[in-house]
Amino acid sequence: MASIRTRITGSYALALAGTMFVFSVVVGYERNQAARNDLIARATTAAELATRILRQAGVESERITIFNDTLTGRQLNERFRGYLEAVPDYLFVLDSGTVLYSSAAVQRLSRKDLDDLTTAAIELPPRSVATYVTLDSLKDQVLLAGGFEVPRAAGGVRRVVAGVSTRSLGIAQTQVLVLVFLVGPVILLISIATAWTLAGRMLASVERMVNDVEAITDGRSLHKRIPLEDLGDEIGRLGETLNAMIGRLEGSFASLRRFTADASHELKTPLTVLRADIERAMTAPQRSTEQLVALEEALQETTRMAGLVDSLLTLARADEGRFDLHTEPLALDALVRDVGETAQILGEEAGITVTSTVIERVSVLGDAVRLRQLFLNLVTNAIKYTARGGRVELSLGAKDGTAVFTVKDTGVGIAGADLPFIFDRFWRVDRARSRSERAGAGLGLAISQWIAQAHGGFISVSSRLGRGSTFSVTIPAMSASANS
Ligand code: ADP
Hints:
Elements: H1 4-56, E1 65-67, E2 74-76, H2 78-84, E3 90-95, E4 98-102, H3 104-107, H4 111-123, E5 131-135, E6 140-149, E7 159-165, H5 167-215, H6 234-283, H7 289-320, E8 328-331, H8 332-350, E9 353-359, E10 363-366, H9 368-384, E11 391-399, E12 402-409, H10 431-436, H11 444-454, E13 458-464, E14 468-476, H12 480-483
Parallel strand pairs: 9-11
Antiparallel strand pairs: 1-2, 3-4, 3-7, 5-6, 6-7, 8-10, 11-12, 12-14, 13-14
């Protein structure tokens, strides 16, 4: 789909081209008509002029024809012929069917053209508007007009017919064509460029607004608003509406977060009390086996719920931005060795070999408690999702100014289709099974990612189903000078 800018410009160009076409047709027609009227006027004027010349020369009183014994019979006499030479173009003086005089322009025509023009002049009805005669030899058309009647004189002059060349009509048509095909495209191009620029300028504010809205993508940036310049126009109103909507979203997000944080907080105390009570009941003397089993189960569930509530509280606080990291220069290698020892103990219980391969010396600015939680999350996952007899490998390296902690396992792996979701809250590959066998709520990786991001880093995963997974945490390292 083309952009709005292209569509506006395209529609404008089409509308303009259509209008210009209609305009050109109308102008062309009008120009042609005007040129024709002009020619008729010229021919009529010439005929009138000839009539007036004849009258003033005394055509009504004097005998104006002389008998000529050649083909035509009668002719206008010499004196009148001399006067009529002042009239330009084609001119005929007729006496019902007889040509008494024809101008020099007529005389110069070829035989056939001369005959055609003469016949047309003779046949031109009196007071008719005009008629056109084609002159083949000159490739021209002559417009004949006139038909003025002169009161019958002694010589019997009846009518004067004048004709003009229609070449100027062609010139008029050429002018219109030049206008359409030379000036038209230039106007069209300039207009398209102007429309493109104007549309771009108008849509720039929409583009800015899209970028602003894009910047407000997650729940944490909902406090931001779209900057508005002009509130009067449609775009200003759209911005206002969006801002109002973001405001409402911010309100509901805040109350949701507050609810999760408050609920987790409220649940913490009763759970702790419950746990203590169960432990006390278990240690009390004279318990039957069934009671002990029931209490043990209750204790397990309570521990699980306490962990869940703790995770929820962590995330809720992180969302609210109420969670302060206690960062300090931290030797990551020591922390990883420590995590490695814990992992070994966990691995032994699960029948998995845990090894710490390469551990380079690298320091970061970080929160020791949170980073330990992050590393342990990944390690426990690796052990949890690896079958007995498998291997888990920890390593720590320094690369391009970053510290990279990697946990590699030979476990069940994650399908490519599931990979994009593993950091989502409450997301587990196998929801049904993980509740009983591999108890986990699906919050561990969400918390891990938050910790990595809070340290300016990120977690990357590569995994193949049935072959195992590799989780890597990359965090900016402290520079060597700060290190020493
Ligand atoms: P959980 O508490 O269920 O482990 P996490 O957020 O830690 O929740 O992990 C989310 C899901 O990602 C897990 O349910 C599991 O399916 C998958 N996953 C995490 N780590 C691994 C791993 N090392 N190997 C295979 N699957 C894993």
